[in-house]
Amino acid sequence: MFPLFLVVILCVVGHCTGSERYYNALHFGTSINDYVLFNPDMSAFQESLSVCAWIKRIYGSSYPTVLNYYPGSSSYLEILITANGYYTRVIGDSGLDNYRSRFTTPTGRWFHLCMTWAKSTTTSKLYLDGVLVGTDTTSSRSLYTGGQLWLGRTSSSYSSSSNFVFGGEVFNLNMFSEVLSDTEIKKAAQEGLCSRSLQDLESRVLKWEYILSRSKSGFVVETETGCGAFLDMQQNLTSLLNETTIRLEKELEVVSETLNDTEHSLNSTQKELQKTEDLLETCSETLADTKSTLSAARKFENVSRWDVLLTEPYFNQVFTEELYEQLTSSWTILEKYVGVNMTEKIVDHFRLHHAGLECDAFDQLSPAMLKQFLGVELTQGIIDHFLDHLSETACNRTTES
Q1: How far apart are CA 285 and CA 15, in angstroms?
Q2: What is the pLDDT of residues 230-265, one digit of tens each?
Q3: What pLDDT score was predicted for residue 32?
Q4: Can you give the three-state secondary structure of 248-296, one letter per residue?
């Protein structure tokens, strides 16, 4: 049960108004004249009912009567609930009285009580603090209607003895037109004095807020339970939690969008990085080729006319008459190219068609040979060279010339 930490403040009838009153308990004096009496419409409860309330014992009478429904002389104790369990009756049946020993709640402390009954099962049950403590078999008749409901004492038609004075406090007493389940009753008890788990049930026909509005006799006052402040705080915390949840969800949505944008940007950056890496690789290959070409070119930076002797036909070879003739014939051919720009095409021509001695090296002039000279300025020397290729006695003519 929810521990009360607020000082109890008495609230005289009419002083507390509006929704604040719903959270008040009723405090009953110790006189037989301190009670609440009204005539409710009980037709909704003829076939089944549940009565639940929070009760605090204060006064030590023999039969502290919390509630007595009196429909007339046919059944003085149609419904009777006492704070010490001495009487717990429905449709006049006394079977639940046998469980009065289960009422062990100390004086001055709130406890939760529920009693249920159904005509269809002829069964009544008693619950204390959410626990089923007793079951009884009742008669199969319906509940009588048209009676008086007394709070704080028994009907004056039954007894006006002070032994039936309640002298305690009751809160959130409601009557339901159905048999509440074990689970519903247990939850209401476990949630404590300020529980509202049963408040929205459609079967809650006789309501506590209605009872609070009934006229009161003698010393019966409303007293604060602290539930109003507690529930307001709970509602404020719930609202704050909802607002915080909504705000966090929006912030999470923004963070998610930012994360998606960042991920998209990262993917784009990775693609650009891959392109850059590919370009870098291409540049590296080009650089390697350039270095290789440069290295090869540097070999010819200081080439002299004598470096031809370092080539394969001459280097580490005996310099024979034949080799001498080969060299001199090459110089003879080159005489005709004085004044000509020595291009790669002309060098290729010498490699292809003048590899050996001069007379052996003169191939017949052909279109393929002429194609090698495309773009080369045709000097008289080059034309004479072509004529040598047309003559079988080119060597002789060249030597004679």
Answers
A1: 96
A2: 666 666 777 888 888 898 998 998 999 899 999 999
A3: 96
A4: HHHHHHHHHHHHHHHHHHHHHHHHHHHHHHHHHHHHHHHHHHHHHHHHH
Asked whether 317 and 326 are in contact (CB, 8 A), the reply is: no
140-158 mean pLDDT: 96
Question: Under a CB-based contact definition with an 8 Å cutoff, are residues 349 and 372 in contact?
Answer: yes
Quote the pLDDT of residue 363. 63
CA distance linking residue 150 with residue 66, whole number of Å:
8
Percent of the chain past pLDDT 70, that is, above it, reads 85
d(CA 128, CA 111): 7
Helix (H) or strand (E) holding 175: strand 169-176
Give the whole-angstrom CA distance, residue 69 versus residue 52.
Answer: 14
Beta carbons within 8 Å of 243's beta carbon, 6+ residues apart: none
What is the helix, strand, coil percentage profile of the chain, to 5? Answer: 40, 20, 40
Q: What is the pLDDT of residues 265-280, one digit of tens each?
A: 999 999 999 999 999 9
CA distance 183 to 131: 10
Tokens representing residue 297 in the block: 């070119």
Dihedral-angle region of residue 106 (phi above 0 means left; psi in -120 to 50 means alpha; beta otherwise): beta
Q: Give the contacts of 130 (CB within 8 A, at least 6 positions apart).
A: 112, 185, 186, 187, 188, 189, 190
Cα 39 from Cα 171, distance rounded (Å): 19
Higher pLDDT, 396 or 377: 377
